[in-house]
Amino acid sequence: MDGPAIDAGGGHVRLRLDIAYDGTEFAGWAVQEGQRTVAGVLNEALSTVFRTPVRLRAAGRTDTGVHATGQVAHADVPVDALPNAYPRSPRPAEPEFLPLLRRLGRLVPADVRIRRIIRAPAAFDARFSALRRHYIYRLSTAPYGAEPHQARYVTGWPRVLDVEAMAAASRELLGLHDFAAFCRHRDGATTIRDLQRLDWSREGELVTAHVTADAFCWSMVRSLVGALLAVGEHRRGAAWCRDLLTATHRSSDFAAAPARGLTLVGVDYPPDDQLAARSLVTRDLRSRD
């Protein structure tokens, strides 16, 4: 078992939490006054369990209506608060925080789950240690829209899509670029990103995009999908998509795809002995994002 990720002399231990949620009824991840958010709900639950204020910091601050099956966050918890999380000690074969998971499972609402809690390795930071984030975007081209059991997670797009054309245009966007045309503006924030994967698959009427980058700026995935849908409907060509990379501001030539189809499915981290170095590099690049 790794020791505390932060100075034990400070009396705290850093925990890593793996989280899933249905974003339909959340106003995104980040805490907002007067809004129901994922972080707000979880901070309240964790603060109740540990009997001290707890604040989560996440790998990706998902927007309103966006889902997650692979969100990662960390929290710093006082060492002397840890016993308050447990009604009993775990059995020898059980993970250390299994009693805490069970308690939180009863405390948090059904549309958010903490799936795993572990002591974080030294220097772990959910946001700044991350190497890349993985998203998927799902659409249904069925003429009647998405199936009822998928309607919260799949965008109905009952029009013909040329998936091969979308895939060809996607390849033009891969690599390190300024994605200003695809990002909502944040003062002082860089829009340069390394887009490592953007490909499409079709299974019957279900069309799925797999999108991976070192990080994503505000609304970037949904904007990429929205632009590529214009290509898939033959309203625009692959060259138009590529030319958007020369823009210096958010383009008004297309609309971002609806939030419901987007899910954060995973976050990659380097080996433990490289976490600190990765955090330093990322903080230098993203500290104002």
UniProtKB/TrEMBL annotation:
List of residues binding substrate: Y135
EC number: 5.4.99.12
Top class in the EC scheme: isomerase
InterPro entries per UniProt: PsdUridine_synth_cat_dom_sf, PsdUridine_synth_TruA, PsdUridine_synth_TruA_a/b_dom, PsdUridine_synth_TruA_C, TruA/RsuA/RluB/E/F_N
Residues annotated as transmembrane: none
Alphabetical UniProt keywords: Isomerase, tRNA processing
MF term (GO), any: tRNA pseudouridine(38-40) synthase activity
Keyword Zinc-finger tagged: no
Active site: D63 (nucleophile)
SUPFAM superfamilies the UniProt entry points to: Pseudouridine synthase (SSF55120)
Domain Pseudouridine synthase I TruA alpha/beta, residue spans: 20-73, 169-270
Catalytic activity, reaction form: uridine(38/39/40) in tRNA = pseudouridine(38/39/40) in tRNA
Cited Pfam families: PseudoU_synth_1
Any Gene Ontology biological process: tRNA pseudouridine synthesis
Superkingdom of the source species: Bacteria
Protein family according to the UniProt entry: Belongs to the tRNA pseudouridine synthase TruA family.
General function of this protein: Formation of pseudouridine at positions 38, 39 and 40 in the anticodon stem and loop of transfer RNAs.
Quaternary context: Homodimer.
Official protein name in the record: tRNA pseudouridine synthase A
